[in-house]
């Protein structure tokens, strides 16, 4: 979706040039350290990971037109969750108040709240009751609301409908079916079998966690105990490692993040792809070779439907926000019904408001909405941990070794269990 993104970047640069960069401590209503003073109203910055469909800049322009004294400047950080996190936390650790509102990955809430980087919010100011139920849990820490759900996400299995139809096959509902079709049909059509996001970064944590959850396992218990050493986790990692060993996961997929894997699918190089719903728009676009030839279904698991990890992002107010009142109002605006509709229609991202998933007009335009709703409702959150980054780094490193055939799945699971226990001890 780079074509939309390029246009979005132009707008972003224009916004920054027009409004000027507002750094901490220089705006009205702040003290020299950048903490809020006065009525908490004034200009603000919103930091986000790469806006892959380039919709957010124009959307914020709508707010800016009607709030000339509370304008928001968009700061777009890199596409990958890890790089964005690194840039945000470097600033937050040094007490830099550059970003007032953070569009943060749902996986980070506990860590950012525990570190005191984001401020608790007044629940009554936001339309929490209209959200899909599982998303709210990702925004709380220690029973308090620290963020407001904004975009949700669940993994889906994209498949080449033309290829399956020709072979008289239906999309796989189990790993065994996926494996069989990837092994037999894909080579006949010169396609790679299956890919997801397998480079060591947050995306691999997601893919591996989905494999473990789908097989009935867990990584950490609710009490933070390490629970990964189980036959289910071995089955989950075994599925991914076997794919590479037997060639139905192409080796190249070990370097894929979301965008590389989307490109491979829409260039017509893969039979199956695990990706988020945003990939649907790109694969249906003018420069896609598979437009009109693919479908998307919920992820399969070992013996039936699999379990997706709950993805998405929440909006939080930095503990050092210069204008927290304006920040809360902007968040209420971004989670309002008309803006949430645009998140879907212009951003190709899954909104958090439940009613949009049952709107017949939207279902006609976005036929994957019912499958996505089912996936989000049954999705499971990543482990909640104040040391989430270390948990995720351990998962990525070990799973990548298993997929690269450096360690068998049994050894990999035992090593992961030891490494996670060491992370817990450091806490
Ligand atoms: C998507 C998800 C996010 C996840 C990331 C992993 O952006 O919304 O929750 O952490 O992908 O790459």
Automatic annotation (TrEMBL):
Superkingdom of this protein's organism: Bacteria
Pfam families, per the entry: SBP_bac_1
Entry keyword set: Signal, Sugar transport, Transport
This protein's record includes keyword Transport: yes
Signal peptide region: 1-24
InterPro entries: Bact_solute-bd_prot1 (IPR050490), SBP (IPR006059)
Family annotation (PANTHER family): ABC TRANSPORTER PERIPLASMIC-BINDING PROTEIN YCJN-RELATED, ARABINOSE-BINDING PROTEIN-RELATED
Family classification: Belongs to the bacterial solute-binding protein 1 family.
Protein name according to UniProt: Multiple sugar transport system substrate-binding protein
């Amino acid at each position: 979706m780079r074509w939309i993104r390029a246009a979005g970047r132009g707008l972003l640069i224009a916004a920054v040039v027009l409004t000027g960069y507002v750094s901490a401590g220089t705006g009205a209503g702040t003290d020299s350290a950048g903490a809020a003073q006065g009525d908490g109203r004034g200009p603000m910055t919103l930091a986000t990971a790469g806006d892959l469909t380039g919709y957010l800049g124009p959307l914020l322009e709508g707010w800016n037109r009607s709030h000339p004294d509370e304008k928001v400047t968009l700061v777009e950080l890199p596409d990958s969750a890890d790089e964005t996190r690194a840039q945000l936390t470097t600033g937050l650790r040094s007490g830099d108040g550059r970003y007032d509102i953070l569009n943060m990955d749902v996986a980070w809430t506990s860590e950012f709240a525990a570190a005191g980087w984001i401020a608790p919010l007044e629940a009554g100011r936001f339309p929490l009751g209209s959200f899909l139920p599982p998303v709210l849990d990702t925004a709380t820490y220690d029973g308090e609301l620290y963020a407001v759900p904004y975009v949700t996400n669940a993994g889906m299995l994209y498949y080449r409908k033309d290829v399956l139809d020709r072979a008289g096959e239906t999309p796989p509902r189990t790993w065994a079916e996926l494996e069989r079709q990837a092994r037999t049909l894909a080579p006949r059509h010169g396609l790679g079998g299956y890919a997801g996001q397998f480079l060591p970064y947050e995306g691999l944590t997601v893919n591996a966690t989905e494999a473990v959850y789908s097989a009935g396992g867990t990584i950490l218990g609710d009490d933070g105990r390490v629970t990964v050493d189980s036959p289910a986790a071995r089955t989950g990692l075994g599925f991914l490692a076997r794919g590479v060993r037997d060639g139905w996961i192409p080796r190249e997929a070990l370097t894929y993040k979301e965008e590389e894997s989307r490109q491979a699918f829409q260039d017509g190089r893969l039979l199956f792809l695990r990706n988020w719903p945003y990939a649907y728009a790109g694969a249906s676009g003018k420069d896609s070779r598979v437009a009109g030839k693919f479908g998307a279904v919920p992820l399969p698991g070992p013996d039936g439907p699999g379990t997706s990890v709950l993805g998405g992002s929440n909006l939080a107010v930095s503990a050092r926000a210069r204008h927290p009142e304006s920040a809360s109002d902007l968040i209420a605006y971004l989670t309002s019904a008309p803006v949430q509709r645009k998140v879907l229609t212009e951003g190709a991202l899954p909104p958090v408001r439940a009613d949009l998933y049952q709107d017949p007009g939207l279902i006609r335009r976005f036929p994957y909405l019912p499958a996505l709703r089912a996936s989000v409702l049954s999705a499971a959150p990543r482990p909640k941990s104040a040391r989430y980054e270390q948990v995720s780094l351990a998962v990525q490193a070990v799973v990548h070794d298993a997929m690269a055939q450096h360690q068998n799945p049994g050894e990999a699971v035992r090593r992961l269990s030891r490494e996670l226990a060491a992370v817990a001890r450091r806490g």
